[in-house]
Design goal:
2 domains, Rossmann fold, four-stranded antiparallel beta sheet, 7 helices, membrane, six-stranded mixed beta sheet, 32% helix, ATP-binding, alpha/beta, single chain, ATP binding
């Protein structure tokens, strides 16, 4: 599904952030990307939806070379991905329903299909009874669940999560991670950047560790 081959990312001012990174991710994989702050975890994740591009190397997603993807093809690639952020990135003037519906509205789905998919996604994260609420009235854990529902509503093949439990307490963090594990059971690949080694070690899955720009897959 996803293959990094010799991927290097260098910034003119900050130097080399990633150096010769290589790994593969397959359907149904759960993988954790770990490393100290500034190790390059977020940089690596940004390369997959082509928010940024590598300096050298190749990134393939189902046979498509993301490293050389034309600008007009980027939206199509992003529709295959579900993106989840530490700070939720919800629209506070929209209801829970409308936040989750946004990717489908942009993609041009009809009203009936949007309603069906949104409610199915909210039900999956146990937030169906909150669809008319606004984000400001929700707890941090509830807001993250809405963010996850928005990420899965268009049925992505790969979920990318950047520190998704960074603002949550330990109990909620375990609940959120358990949701990601459920998604892998239906063939969705999940790649999670996290600095919480205690939580990561309790979850199983693959462990990809970044140190000084280089990636090492650690045995469990």
């Amino acid at each position: 599904m996803l293959t990094f081959s010799g991927v290097t990312k260098r910034y003119s001012e900050g130097g080399e952030v990633l150096s010769g990174v290589g790994f593969e991710l397959h359907a149904g994989d759960l993988a954790f990307l770990t490393g100290a702050s500034g190790a390059g975890k977020s940089t690596l994740l940004r390369l997959i939806p082509v928010i940024d591009r590598p300096t050298r190397g190749q990134i393939m997603l189902d046979g498509v070379n993301l490293s050389k993807l034309p600008e007009h093809d980027i939206p199509g690639i992003r529709r295959r991905l579900g993106l989840i952020f530490q700070d939720f990135k919800l629209l506070h003037d929209r209801t829970v329903f409308d936040n989750v519906a946004l990717p489908l509205v942009i993609a041009g789905f009809g009203h009936a299909e949007i309603a069906r998919r949104v409610r199915a996604a909210l039900d999956k994260v146990h937030m169906l009874n909150r669809e008319k609420r606004y984000p400001v009235s929700l707890s941090g854990g509830e807001q993250q669940r809405v963010g996850i529902a928005r990420a899965i509503v268009h049925k992505p093949q790969l979920i990318l999560a950047d520190e998704p439990t960074g603002n949550l307490d330990p109990e909620l963090s375990v609940e959120i991670m358990s949701l990601f594990h459920e998604f892998t059971q239906v063939g969705v690949a999940v790649l999670i950047a996290s600095h919480d080694l205690g939580l990561v070690s309790s979850m199983g899955g693959r462990l990809l560790h970044l140190s000084e720009g280089r990636l090492i897959e650690e045995a469990r």
